[in-house]
Batch of 2 targets.
Target 1
Amino acid sequence: MIVDPVTARWAGALYGLAQRKGVLAAVVRDVERLGAEVARPQVQRVLLNPRIDLETRRGAVAPALGGAHELTRNFVALAFDRGRVEVLTGLSTAFRRRILEDAGEVEGVIETARPLPPAEIERAAAEFGRVLGKKLRLANRVDPALVGGARITAMNRMLDGSVTGRLEALKRRLLQAPLPG
Amino acid sequence: MELRPAEVTSILEKEIEQYKGETAMQSIGTVLSVGDGVARVYGLDDCVMNELLEFPNGVRGVALNLEEDNVGCVLLGDATKVKEGDTVRSTGRVISVPTGEQLLGRVVNALGDPIDGKGPLGTSTSDLRPIESAAPSVVEREPVKEPLQTGIKAIDAMIPIGRGQRELIIGDRQTGKTALCIDTIINQKTTAGGDPKHPEQVICIYVAVGQKQSTIVDVQRRLEAAGAMPYTIIVAASANDEASMQYLACYAGVAMGERFRDEGRHVVIFYDDLYKQALAYRQVMLLLRRPPGREAFPGDVFNLHSRLLERAAKISRDAPKINPRYKQGGGSITALPIVETQEGDVAAYIPTNVISITDGQIFLESALFNAGIKPAVNAGISVSRVGGSAQIAAMKKIAGGLRLGLASYRALAAFAQFGSDLDKATLQELTRGERLTEILKQGQYVPMPVEQQIQIIYVATAGHLDDVPARRVSEVEKAFLRAMSEQHPEVAEEIKKTKNVSDGARAALDQVIAAVKVQLGTSTTQPAAKAQPKSKA
């Protein structure tokens, strides 16, 4: 998922503050709960609709803030006051990415034609992570259209070792090859 | 085109033989939004400016805006085939076009793909050149000194163009701007008989930007009919091509020319026209959300044209010692950009920009055109800042009188409108001016070799045509040139070889014109004219 720069900046502020105050664990838990709530379509419809008055919209996220840390509650209130409600939708993704970043980790996807055993995913993650210079966490996604091999995507980089990908590359080369004579 | 199965098999065999199992890591991105021929792409972290990007379904794009979290790019193909969420791959190379001799005689688009139905070009990757490249540096150049003959009397005599010069052709619609280009292309046949392999042959590149497709076909037909296509490349981005293609076509054309220039050849390139290119650039830049400036053009519209025209240059003989890029020194690119004005307004934004960049301009006026003076060159305000160094000695000597004669004619003609009583000297100047104007008229698609130009201009400036009625000047001119080539072909040869007109040649010219006048009965001063019908009978 794409995190826009504004959300990344807001999330960074909350993260940094929580870390300095030593309440990171509590805030992370809040943010995850809030993220799950905001992801629900009913909530999102109310939250992002400018025709609904502000109080009703504040109320839509209130259930997720029950028992939340003070910093989280302040954060949500400030987002409403500044007219930046949309940062709440990408907040949990931005937070997760921040946590991974601090741990020197990145998330990625390994696509294969059939499910991979965990040991192989681990090996692929270790190999590809070495190239990227990061600790890589790979999720396995099954796509029968790949026919065979694997396609790894992480940090806007792609290593396409799938049969389909190689055939595509061959097709592109053949189309560009000059005809003799 | 016929597809021969054996050829495809041979390519396959080669590909299979050289196939490498390894897979390279690619930089990828995701399409955020697409529309109006531009796309915003998330990702592509290590994308560079002007990098060629691959979208699904064979659509290509060029990265133009590198922003904090996304890349803005223009699409060079069917934008309807690209949708949100599509994966974009970077190619690791900036946008390039094929170059080389296989392009001669072809019509290609802004990416160098042939569009004339004559089959693929057969270029290898070593023929590819990036369309944006730096102009030659100061030390690699030398002053413009060799003439580029356009074959148009009014231009070669008064507004000479040198190889490596940038000369703007400016005028309203329907004033003969494109016709001037075609004539110049046809005339380059005289440099080496139109043999594209000959090192002296001037290569012509015609870049059509935002033109009607019918116009492009017409230009191609005209050049084919005149036998000028074998040494010409047409780069076409017609009005229905994407705006991105229209603005890139000029750079593609000059990149193709630079290949020949670096091999020591001479190239002349026509941009028809830069106003439409600026409009296409404005469209793309506004869609990419770059801030608009005057007339909504982006701030770098001046640089758009200056960096293009700076690439026209005369390369010094010693350039290969300075920069290994030049295989042979002495090559040149002459740029003849066209700018179309609206209602003769040369003070508009784009015309003034290009006027300030170029080394002179040829003004074509609708008033002159409508008065039957074709080519409609306004000799008064047209200039060439290179001047006489781009003329052969003979022309320099003879054309001096032409310029002066026409200048005093224009000054007097304005006065003469008011009074009827004019003294003899004034009348004399008016008569001369009228005759000079007459001999500068020239038909379309009939460029004249410089030797012939010199002969007829000599005759006119020496006053030999003063007693010929103005309406019969062209008739006399034709008969005179025919007589010269029949009776004294050595005069043209001599001018060609020595670049000068000797006294002997002058005597021959004087003698032939007198005889022609008598023969046609156009001379009013010589009694022989009246005697002519008798001799005929």
Note: Chain B touches chain A through 30 residues (CB under 8 Å).
Target 2
Amino acid sequence: MAKLSVSYISFIELQEIVDLLGNVSGYDLSGYSKSSLKRRIQRVLDLERMDVVDLKNAITNIEGFQTYLMNEVTVNVTEMFRDPRYYAALRSDVFPYLQTYPQLKFWSAGCSTGEEVYSLAILLMESGLYDRSFIYGTDINGNVLESARKAIYPLKKIKVYSENYNASGSRGSLSDYYTAMYEAAIVNTEVRKNILFSQHNLAADYIFNEFQFISCRNVLIYFDMELQNKVFNLFYNSLAEFGFLCLGSKETLLNRDIMSNFKVINKEFNIYQKIR
Amino acid sequence: MSKADDIILIGGSAGSYNLIVAIIESLPSYFLYAIVVIIHRNPKFTTRIEDTLAARLHRPIIQAGDKTIVSKNMIYFAVPGYHLLVEPDRTFSLDNSEQIQFSRPSIDVLFETAAETYGKRCTAFLLSGANKDGTDGIRMVKKMGGNTFAQSPDEALMRTMPENAIRANQEINILTDQEIISYFRNLR
């Protein structure tokens, strides 16, 4: 079915795809930001040299295509210690409070290939909190979770991650936490020990535990306001009293109804604490 | 704040900063457009372009925030590190996906999504830069019926970006710096 020329998808056709996928699978894309979603679907059309009719056919008839499509549509750009000053803020503004708990549960929602989860684990190790902590990393995309579990990253990326780590104000060296071999680095077992990766769809799934800390960074930007509010509610209900919610640097709770249940801990990095 | 019916996009990269400042300084105190400026800059270094200009010009100049309304009489800047998109309901959205033309924000992404929503009421300017971002975006703005302008490569500090767009888009209008500035001075 390879096409010679590029086929463009319109917003009307996008809606048809969203409706079809919703009808024939458990994947609900109706709350995703339209322009961003359209670009992602267009990317799949380009990659597969398909037009919209081919795409509908594949969604309906090709086994495994629905999951493949979802995996391609979701964005998996992440880094260890991305926004280094955010991690510095966790250390100074959040961890002193967490010290007071005998046991700590963390949820990294939309964790992609795991870099953020391992960054958090390293930070907890350095603050002496990791032995009483457990981190759940979830994503809608099963493929990236597989990578997350392997914890192997190309050395080229590790170079950027090390720069981030150094900028986060940690006194050690990132190389204390991985073992390099050939062109890759594997995260050491002592960092990986208190972590579980599992699949969770923020748009459709429910509460699965109670947490002292939830981070969901650069995921909500892909959702429209309505779905964002729904997910904020999910987080609120999943947080223990005085638990923390950390969003991406351009994702804010301000101006949302649910903000009245939170207090701002760090405005620049959108760190909030549940107060009621 | 009410939604803008018309949008003007200004895309610049290396060598465009001074002209962008001159454009913003020349703007009348009230206009019916939403103006969106997108410059390539490194997210690892904080810049205070918006704050500096806002203080100097005594008017709000803000970063385009996720899910905020595209409003008239406003000057927006694209935040570093994210693609900036315009949604069909005339709000902005941000996107952290792969770089386009080695850039995030990418001028192409903003121009293409704004063109689809605003059609002929979308106007795009492409200024100095050392890469090829913006060429596809200009093509889309034109295709949807909008107006397109390029800074004259002879006046641009880095000619690659406007030159590449001109080569690929025969109908683009080529303007000198003075012509660009007076376009904005005469905005209603």
Note: The first strand of chain A starts at residue 104 and ends at 109.
